[in-house]
Structures
1.
Amino acid sequence: MAHPKETGQYFPINTPDIGSTLEVEDENTSALFKSLTIKDMVFKNRIFASPMCQYSSDNGHATDWHLVHIGGFATRGVGAICMEATSVVPEGRISPEDAGLWLDTQIEPLKRIVNFAHAHGTKIGIQLSHAGRKSSIHPPWVQSKAGRGSSHVALENEGGWPGRVYGPSDLPFSKTYPIPKAMTEQDLLYLENAFISSIERCQKAGFDFIELHGAHGYLLHSFLSPLSNTRDDEYGGQPLENRLRFFLRLVKVCREAWAEKPLFVRISASDWADGPEKDDEGRWKQWGIEQSTILVARLKEIGVDLIDCSSGGNWAHQKIIAKPGYQVPFAEALKIAHPDILVGTVGLITEPLQAESYLKNGQADVVFLARGIMRNPHWAITAAEQLGVKVKVANQYERAWH
């Protein structure tokens, strides 16, 4: 029996943990299947399940959908799972059906999932977030049915809160999104305290790590970019230090509140807007890799353990040529500039040899997968087969692989 006190159920013990290599690690071990130690916590391999919004929560509470969704990855060999964007306040959700951690009643459903992952030898974390000016909108499948150009706003009678959407400035993401209110110092302090309270709930739920969502045009990213932050106070405008201020302040208090375990931060390394990051006169025009490199230096000073490097999501007219590994150059640039901090990479990474090459070439330290492992939850085991690595398969599934 595995972890009977935590789960109250019988699970066959897997030795070693599912997804661990069955061979002694040495210089010839596959990069994907080398263990990784972060803050004395050992991750059995470097295949991490990315946060994947499911838009399936009940007033912020995880449901059996999440247990099955996350549990399927926990039993199929990934090194770690990061649960989806989870708002620290109700008005910080993307949609009314988003996950949350602003109530104590939201702890227990998450704890059940955490215990299940731990019973199967898989590390599990959570992405804490605030959607900022991209909140109070409908899930993607509702938007697609409404058609191009239709409003994405979830109204009050649909469970939304369009009058309580906040951002650094009063600029909407697009004409189909709500018009945000510029946050006051009181709003910033309220949010800071909400993050600390959610971290306390993360501790009670038993999560192994926390990722702070600073990407994809959500609140923290929108403070960074001159496209979305036009404030004229100490938190905005042209000076980079001003636009970094709230982001760094929040990360610092979160690091202090989550002192003993790994802390990750997801960033968007580029807005993918037209034109350069900086004009000929030295004025910042959009968020990009030069400013991201400066940001990562500051995050390193605070004690962040890993940068989860993504891009985009802050400019409605972004033009991205999406191809396999299209975001890897951002991660590589950060890794070159800051070799002493761990960097994760994302973006249409679907093939094991492709993922292996990014780690072997030093372009990143881990790969975060989402669509690839949604399509094939056994991606890690399949990757091991293709790379010629012998790994532990769950006892219940061994017959399928021999």
2.
Amino acid sequence: MCISSPKTETGRAILGWWCIDSRLIMEPMIPDGYYTSKKSDDICPDVCGAETSNSSLSMSRLRCIFRWLDMKTFVFVFIIVPVCMVGVYLHGQKVTYFLRPLWQSPPVPFIEIPHYYHENMTMENLCKLHGWGIREFPRRVYDAVLFNNEVDMLAIRWKELYPHVTQFVLLESNSTFTALPKPYFFAISRDQFKFVEPRLTYGTIGGRFRKGENPFIEEAYQRVALDQLLQIAGIEDDDLLIMSDVDEIPSRHTINLLRWCDDTPQILHLQLRNYLYSYEFHFNSKSWRASVHRYQKGKTRYAHYRQTNYLLSDSGWHCSFCFRHISDFTFKMKAYSHTDRVRFSHFLDPRRIQDIICRGADLYDMLPEEYTFKDIIKRLGPIPHSYSGIHLPAHLLENADKYKYLLPGNCRREG
């Protein structure tokens, strides 16, 4: 709309003619008709000042504004909004993980215990180096695991620990944590493990098969059942109990140290070297969930979370997604507790999985789970290749032909 100045020359010189769009603005004007304001009508400059009636001028201006809004609205609704929605759908998880340092603080640091070992040192000297005493006889050791389908990794684990374990305890379900039915894989492959039969306590449990339930509930249910199986196996107070997943393998000399040394912590987490897909991709040494407990009846519960602040440095290996067959990768991606990470069906494409294995990239196209921007940026991109085969599990190296796919330089998988 337009506002006219008074009819006198002085009035017109002071106020002038002004055109406004959505705000009523009146500004002074210097003599000779020059405006001090740079504001102009940027919507319909030809409407103001036109020789039309007030009503027709208002209608023209209204039509002009609606025409301008229509174009802006069209761009916003049909271009900007869909692009933003697609971006959030495809990359929302990445944004959340990248911003994690803003909404989550890092956990309390562990009290890291230095770890000493040399094959030519006596156990008495090794215990002394750690600040512990030496026992007259070693503690009994129980190694307890929940089993899914990691047959090769179980063989490597049990061969590594065999000299020092009193009883191997294994529980297997016919259900995954995500309520998918599965065979009893260990029962099918049991002939491969005859070397542990005299020391094996094996149990099975039926799945609850509750679709849509939080997978961690089923996982907790199976861990409670493993507590009961340990009682059947005959565990007693002050026995050592290893709590870890099958692919979290303590080194042989670590367990021997803890069974011979006295005055060790009641609960001790084990720092393991983290590998992905094989022992070619070593990305850090921050794995800590494996733990060793001096068993206390009625108090010790089988768990896979942080239970103490004590961490024994460099105590073994954690090889995640270290499978022989591509089908094993797809099975685990659909079966374990973090199944929500399979956001798109093409994540399960065998050709994609094989390509990712050889590049050392992330199966779920996720950013690293870190608590500082520095650590996130440091770990961006594929894991660098490592060609070191030093200090790996003995059974793995003794049977290199059988486990070739786990060694550096052999990323191709069967199937």
